[in-house]
Write a structure and sequence with these properties.
globular; Tetracycline Repressor, domain 2; mainly alpha
Length: about 300
């Protein structure tokens, strides 16, 4: 392989690592309103949601870059984060700032195609992201609650983009889901870092494995309860039939957190766990059938 092509590939990988493209899956929550309002085949709505999705992805990436610049010294002491482009000195801070400005410009251009109220909520997400990177992530409990709030704001943006009603379930279920994942990540971090927690993130000193397990027990109960209530009280009360799949996925993930799986720290790696993937696929298929294919015989 010619040297310049190899260099180009390495540079591209460094940029993709810097903007954390692997974390873009978090913005898929913007599709929830589209899916659960039975508008998945509305082409106009799908196009608008895709624009909102990439807008959020670009904004998130700018936030990640800012976060990495702020934490560059501490990341160098972290067994995993030390390989990030800035911490590993694969890219300079000035280069990272230029990339952030380019991505922010792309995000603004996309955002201008959305309605005014959606733009306002995107601005709110941007402000909360900055507050998280600079202040909130250093405050025990405020860190995980902020992450969960950002998750809900993404879901709300999906509803605002296509102009559908924002139900209480669109707030409760994503919030408790994100809380469940965030606490699981904190627990995974503690198991990985142990005595090194104070050198990588001060807030981790205030968490303990006992506390995080207690919190994840609470968040699991809240997540299961909120989804069960939604499946019974929503316009699609036949979603009760999806409860076995939902419980399997939630309990399987809970097991992975307790066993110290890397998936707890990196949820994007769920493809490494076959039972979890199969459970998610079956849950999605059954949910799709019950929302988009009406069975009068079930009534």
């Amino acid at each position: 392989m010619p040297r310049y092509i190899h260099h180009l590939i390495q540079s591209s990988r460094t940029i993709l690592d810097l903007i954390r493209i692997r974390q873009w899956y978090k913005n898929l929550v913007v599709f929830l309103a589209l899916f659960f309002s039975a508008n998945l085949f509305n082409i106009k709505y799908v196009q608008e949601i895709i624009i909102a999705f990439f807008t959020l992805c670009f904004i998130s990436s700018v936030g990640y870059i800012i976060n990495d610049i702020v934490d560059i010294r501490k990341d160098r002491h972290h067994p995993e984060k030390k390989y990030r482009p800035l911490a590993a000195e694969k890219i300079t801070i000035s280069e990272a700032i230029i990339i952030a400005l380019i991505i922010a410009s792309l995000g603004i251009l996309l955002a201008l195609q959305l309605n005014t109220i959606t733009l306002l909520f995107i601005l709110i997400i941007w402000i909360v992201n900055i507050c998280y990177s600079l202040i909130l992530k250093h405050i025990m409990l405020a860190d995980i609650l902020t992450i969960s709030t950002l998750f809900v704001l993404r879901a709300i943006i999906g509803a605002l983009t296509i102009g559908v009603t924002i139900s209480p379930w669109l707030i409760m279920c994503p919030f408790f889901l994100s809380l469940f994942l965030s606490i699981g990540k904190r627990h995974g971090d503690l198991l990985l870092l142990k005595e090194k927690a104070s050198t990588t993130r001060n807030v981790l000193q205030e968490y303990t494995p006992t506390l995080t397990l207690s919190l994840i027990n609470i968040s699991t109960s809240l997540l299961v309860t909120s989804y069960a209530l939604y499946s019974f009280l929503s316009p699609y009360n036949k979603l009760l039939y999806t409860l076995p799949f939902a419980l399997f996925v939630i309990f399987r993930y809970y097991h992975l957190v307790q066993s110290g799986s890397i998936i707890a720290r990196h949820p994007e790696q769920i493809i490494k766990d076959l039972p979890l993937c199969v459970g998610l696929i079956l849950w999605g298929i059954v949910t799709f059938i019950l929302i988009y294919i009406r069975f009068t015989s079930f009534s």
